[in-house]
Write a structure and sequence with these properties.
Layout: H1 2-29, H2 34-55, H3 58-80, H4 86-98, H5 106-136, H6 138-151, H7 153-172, H8 178-199, H9 201-204, E1 205-208, E2 218-219, E3 223-225, E4 228-230, H10 239-248, E5 252-255, H11 261-278
Antiparallel strand pairs: 1-5, 2-5, 3-4
Length: 287
């Protein structure tokens, strides 16, 4: 373990510094610069290549390339599924090189294990962050939540009726499946969570002056200009579209996502801790 830690120590240090800078940029400007992500990819691959050439341990470099290839595919999947923004997807590619693979099985434990922990911690972080957003825009959020709940009131009332009926039946001894009752309660909580997330849109959609637009901003819908239509895209706004909007001087509705890079920081620190100190399988974080 000491040899493995020494080998990956430099990679971990570089990645940690890069993630911290990416987090600061994301929190301040809601974007992660391409140069930051691409330089992480370049530094990580270069280090693996130099170390492999010095030690003749070419599997160290090959595993890094394979990690990049796997995470490149996952990053594109998450990007085009609207799970990640472009900066988050590129950061994931870089971390695919950094993760410690000693054998092919490590692509499952440290590779997909990292993804699982990233989403778990990311969900918890996003939920906490969203509470502050909802509180900051409480009036609009409360109105939107009430409206969305009203649209689905029959579904909510039906679920609530089933839960109450199951609870009464459990108390009276008509059936003894506590697990079923727990599942029903979770169904109501998930339903309310869905309404909650849907209602957050009113808090993260803002009218932005075209001078404040940046490449990659997500517009709410197509924008009609004189002789041209700026279309909503998974890639966000491009430089040419931004220039057209600035010339038109038209205010733009932009959807601001929750900055997700802090979740990368939390997941990476968890991975380093388990790799460096505990000696436990990283997948143990899931159980």
């Amino acid at each position: 373990m000491a040899v493995e830690l020494a080998k990956y120590g430099f990679l971990f240090a570089i990645a940690l510094i890069w993630i911290i800078f990416a987090t600061i940029q994301d929190l301040k400007k809601r974007e992660v610069p391409n140069w930051l992500n691409f330089s992480l990819v370049a530094f990580a691959l270069a280090y693996r290549a130099f170390f492999s050439a010095y030690s003749s341990e070419w599997s160290f470099f090959i595993f890094g390339v394979l990690g990049f290839a796997i995470f490149f595919g996952l990053a594109n999947l998450f990007y085009y599924s609207h799970v990640f923004a472009g900066g988050d997807a590129k950061l994931l590619m870089g971390l695919g090189i950094v993760l410690p693979y000693s054998n092919y099985f490590d692509f499952l434990t440290f590779g997909f294990g990292f993804i699982a922990v990233l989403f778990f911690l990311g969900a918890a972080y996003s939920l906490i962050y969203s509470v502050f957003i909802a509180r900051k825009n409480y009036s609009r959020f409360a109105l939107e939540f009430k409206k969305n709940l009203g649209k689905m009131r029959y579904m909510f009332i039906s679920l609530l009726f089933v839960v109450v009926f199951a609870f009464v039946s459990l108390v009276l001894g008509f059936f003894s499946s506590m697990l079923l009752f727990v599942y029903l309660v979770l169904a109501i909580l998930l339903f309310l969570l869905f309404v909650y997330v849907k209602s957050l849109d009113v808090c993260i959609i803002k009218s932005v002056h075209p001078k404040s637009l940046t490449e990659g901003d997500w517009i709410v819908g197509d924008i009609k200009l004189r002789g041209y239509v700026v279309k909503k895209s998974v890639h966000g706004l491009g430089e040419e579209d931004i220039e057209r909007l600035r010339k038109a001087g038209k205010m733009v509705l932009v959807k601001e996502g929750i900055p997700f890079t802090p979740a990368f920081l939390f997941a990476f620190l968890a991975m380093v801790f388990f790799f460096s100190f505990s000696g436990l399988d990283f997948l143990a974080l899931l159980f």
